[in-house]
Structures are given as structure tokens and as C-alpha cells.
Amino acid sequence: MVKIMARSVRAQACADLQSHYHASMMTESTESPPAVMFFNAADPSGSAGLAADLASCSAVGCHPLPVTTALWVRDTAEIFDTIEIEADAVVEQARAVLEDVEISAWKVGFLGSVDVVNAVAELLADYSQVPLVTYASNFHVLDESQTDDYIKAMQDLILPQTRVLTGNQSALTQLLLPEWDGEAPPTLDALMQKSQQLGVQYLLVTGIVASEGRVENVLMSPRRVLLRESFELFEAGFTGAGDTLSAVLTAILANGAKLDQAVHEAIEYLDHCLDFGYRPGMGQVVPDRFFWAQPTEEEDDTPSEPGTPTLQ
């Protein structure tokens, strides 16, 4: 992929992503966009966690409702520490908003502790009609003494309420098959079968390395593969890609899109975000969630007409 898109290509990418949103956002009773609640960790580097959720959700025309479940001490290279938040404080954040705003979808990311998993699961059960996307990741930042209990709580309490479970093959294996000790990773069918046993409706496995510098993303139901898409494998190391994909998928579902179409658009959006990724510090590359809003080189080289306002 080239780094800089022409203006027409960039505009078309944005138009394709947002073409069907406006009808669902505008009704006779309200002009408010769909609201999406995110349970995730606060990330001061702006790379992943709630920072990725907010930017991705806003980029496709939804209103984000961020609920902080933990605090990360991190930069763009790594997470140094996790500061836990009391479960009651997490619930109070969410309840205050839920009593005021009607939500159209929500996402569960990193919850930080078993107590928070229990509390969030109880909250989700009160709104069982709202579709839930669960993102499997960041188990490595948990204290080793907590990991097994955390994964068990996610399996027992969050996954049975999950419409779409997503993550890369490694993270999904750790969540679904934590005792796996085979030399090769489990097959996609094995992951889907275990997901079904735990109550998950659909499984989206991302970043499967294929041949010739390509990666595949596969959406599965218990019966069959619903979608398989291949994209160029980027050589750079990214942080926040999984949160970006899961957040934008949740937002597109909130706009009323069918699942296969939502996954297709979310993957396409992520591909553009990675293509325009940037390195804000000395660590990894961050996806540009507002790639379509950045000026192209053509635009930078074009002098402004007299009297044309410019941003400084």
C-alpha cells in the first residue's frame, strides 16, 4: 500500500464507511447519533484502551460513552503497570449514564480485575437486548496470580452475553482454551466450537498470517464461515489495532448494519487506519483513526487562495 492516498480515494473511503449511517442517525424524534458504551482501561498514551474506543467510535458517527475500568501506566511501547478501580466505582460510572442515555451497543475490553468482571456482567444482564462486542486482549498485563481467575470469570459471566467475540488467534486461545499446550495453535473450528460452548454467538479471528505477506480475518458462526478477508501484512509494529477494530465494529453495529457488512466495513476502516499510522513517540505505531481528515501531500503543496481561512 502507498502511504498517501489521493484526495478522491480518501474521500471515497470515508464515504463508503459512513454511507448508510445517516439514515439510522436521523429520526423524527431525535437527531442524536447512536450511543455506544465502552468498558475499558484508560490509556494516557492515546494508543489503545478507551482512547482508541473514543476516537474510532467518533470517526464513524457515533457518540461514545467511556467507562473507565482500570488505569494503565504506559507509553507507546509498553504497559508498565495497571491501577485497579473499585468495582462499585465502575458501576456508578455506567449507571449514571445509562439512566440518562439510551445505548445502541456496547463493548467490553480490559476490565482489570475479577471484581470488575462480576460487576460489569451483572450490569450487562440488565440490558440483555443491547448487542455486546467483547475484545480479547491484554491478559499479559494481569498479575500472574489473577490471570486464571480473570479468564474463568470472563468465560462464565461475559462470554455468555457476547454477540461477537474478537481478537487475534493467540489472545483467543488464552481466553477460550487456556490449557492449550499444542505446538501448533488450535484450529479456527476448535476456537469456534469452544466459543459456542461458552455462549458466544459469533467469532471474529483477526491477524491470521497467510502466505505471501497477507493476513486474514475470519468471521465465523457455529455453522460456517461467514466472511473471510485478506489484507496486506504491515511490517510496522502497531499498538491499539485490536481496540480500534472492535470499537468501530461496535459502532457500526449500533448504526443498524448487518453483522457481515459491519465486519467488512470495520476491517476496511482498520486497514486504512494502519496504512496512515504514525509514531507519536519512540514506541510503536498508532493507527490514525481520523485518516480521512488529514491533509494529503497534494493539499499541503497547494497554496491557499487569498482570503481563504487556514488552520494554524
From TrEMBL:
<dbReference type="InterPro" id="IPR004399">
    <property type="entry name" value="HMP/HMP-P_kinase_dom"/>
</dbReference>
<keyword id="KW-0808">Transferase</keyword>
<dbReference type="GO" id="GO:0009229">
    <property type="term" value="P:thiamine diphosphate biosynthetic process"/>
</dbReference>
<dbReference type="Pfam" id="PF08543">
    <property type="entry name" value="Phos_pyr_kin"/>
</dbReference>
<keyword id="KW-0418">Kinase</keyword>
<dbReference type="GO" id="GO:0005829">
    <property type="term" value="C:cytosol"/>
</dbReference>
<protein>
    <recommendedName>
        <fullName>hydroxymethylpyrimidine kinase</fullName>
        <ecNumber>2.7.1.49</ecNumber>
    </recommendedName>
</protein>
<dbReference type="InterPro" id="IPR029056">
    <property type="entry name" value="Ribokinase-like"/>
</dbReference>
<feature type="domain" description="Pyridoxamine kinase/Phosphomethylpyrimidine kinase">
    <location>
        <begin position="43"/>
        <end position="284"/>
    </location>
</feature>
<dbReference type="GO" id="GO:0008972">
    <property type="term" value="F:phosphomethylpyrimidine kinase activity"/>
</dbReference>
<comment type="pathway">
    <text>Cofactor biosynthesis; thiamine diphosphate biosynthesis.</text>
</comment>
<dbReference type="GO" id="GO:0008902">
    <property type="term" value="F:hydroxymethylpyrimidine kinase activity"/>
</dbReference>
<dbReference type="GO" id="GO:0009228">
    <property type="term" value="P:thiamine biosynthetic process"/>
</dbReference>
<dbReference type="InterPro" id="IPR013749">
    <property type="entry name" value="PM/HMP-P_kinase-1"/>
</dbReference>
